[in-house]
Specification:
Layout lengths: L9 E6 L9 H5 L5 E5 L20 E5 L9 H5 L5 E6 L1
Antiparallel strand pairs: 1-4, 2-3
Length: about 90
């Protein structure tokens, strides 16, 4: 669920794939099941030739579905590397 205020600001959960260690704590704590693990199968090639992602490549990562998320913040609290935050989108 996206939260809106008078300035039409949407707030969503952002998981920084560069900081995330894929520990799965956010996935396990989410009651709404808004967080899922996705795999970018196009990244099965050698990172030496990769032009689309920063090295080291992390083809498996967690994402949060903003249509399901209620912004409870449980995932932020359990993240050991502070890779999760709420961001505002105007």
């Amino acid at each position: 669920m996206k939260v809106k205020n008078a300035d039409i600001i949407d707030r969503i959960i952002d998981i920084d794939c560069h900081l995330c260690t894929n520990c799965g704590r956010c996935y396990n704590v989410c009651d709404k099941k808004a967080i899922s693990r996705v795999t970018n199968y196009s990244c099965a090639r050698c990172v030496k030739y990769c032009t689309t992602m920063d090295v080291p490549c992390k083809p498996e990562r967690f994402v949060c579905d903003p249509d399901i998320c209620d912004l409870c913040g449980k995932c932020i609290e359990v993240c050991p590397v502070s890779a999760i935050r709420i961001v505002e989108i105007k």
